[in-house]
From TrEMBL:
InterPro entries the record matches: Cbl-bd_cap (IPR003759), Cobalamin-bd (IPR006158), Cobalamin-bd_sf (IPR036724), Met_Synthase/Corrinoid (IPR050554), Meth_synthase_dom (IPR036594)
A GO molecular function held by the record: cobalamin binding
Taxonomic lineage: Bacteria, Bacillati, Bacillota, Clostridia, Eubacteriales
Name under which the protein is recorded: Methyltransferase corrinoid protein
Regions that span the bilayer: none
UniProt cross-references to SUPFAM superfamilies, sorted A to Z: Cobalamin (vitamin B12)-binding domain, Methionine synthase domain
GO cellular component: cytosol
Keyword RNA-binding carried by entry: no
Ranges where the B12-binding domain occurs: 87-219
Domain B12-binding N-terminal as annotated: residue spans: 1-87
Length: 219
């Protein structure tokens, strides 16, 4: 099945092959969401699990991530096209000092699969840049990622910057990344955190309409 081929190409870090297979899957009539979940996400999650168990090294993970990005570039225009769902706008980014985008890429893909419009600020994003994006884009949700214990404290700086600019109450803040715990999220004043991207996707599908409704009421 073509999804198995996509998963294999990601595992091998074959970006061009992943790109072509994703195009083929679309041509064969598979939906962008099914390609995302059964091919790209499954592939990168297998690599992520192997990395957690020290069965692959960082270069292999980076190659796999680049492959997933290649496939995502094909279906992203479809996933981000305006829909009747109206499932809000989400700004995502990894904090200053952190150059990891593996988790960010998965979260971005999951948010898109839930029907939301996603603005990706990338990695190494300063608190002021996060605040500028919130002011400019007026998102419903801000998702802040940190993959390192040495950078997770920057999440608090982002929230403090939003408070200083009187933007904090305008947006729900989700924080995530390997070192992030529920206790830490509460300590810095974030609204939500999740163990993995699938939890996040399920939460969005079940609750984003409620979040948007409560935001409209509060305005």
């Amino acid at each position: 099945m073509i999804f198995d081929d996509i998963i294999h190409s990601i595992a091998e870090g074959e970006s061009e092959e992943t790109l072509e297979l994703t195009k083929q899957a679309l041509a064969q009539g598979y939906s962008a969401n099914s390609i995302l979940e059964k091919g790209l996400i499954t592939g990168i999650n297998i690599i992520a699990e192997k990395y957690r168990n020290e069965k692959v090294n960082v270069p292999e993970v980076l190659m796999a991530t680049h492959s997933m990005h290649a496939g995502l570039s094909v279906i992203e225009p479809i996933l981000t096209a305006p829909t009747k769902k109206g499932l809000g706008k989400i700004v995502v980014g990894t904090v200053a000092g952190d150059l990891h985008d593996i988790g960010l890429s998965i979260v971005k893909a999951m948010a898109m699969s839930a029907g939301a419009r996603v603005i990706d600020l990338g990695v190494n994003v300063s608190p002021k840049k996060f605040a500028r994006a919130v002011r400019k884009e007026k998102p419903d949700i801000l998702m802040i990622s940190a993959l390192l214990t040495t950078t997770m404290s920057v999440m608090k700086d982002v929230i403090l910057e939003l408070k200083a600019q009187e933007l904090r109450n305008d947006v729900k803040i989700f924080v995530g990344g390997a070192p992030i715990t529920d206790a830490f999220a509460k300590e810095i004043g974030a609204d939500y955190t999740f163990e993995d991207a699938f939890q996040l996707r399920d939460f969005l599908k079940e609750n984003i309409s409620k979040l948007l409704a409560s935001k409209r009421v509060s305005q």
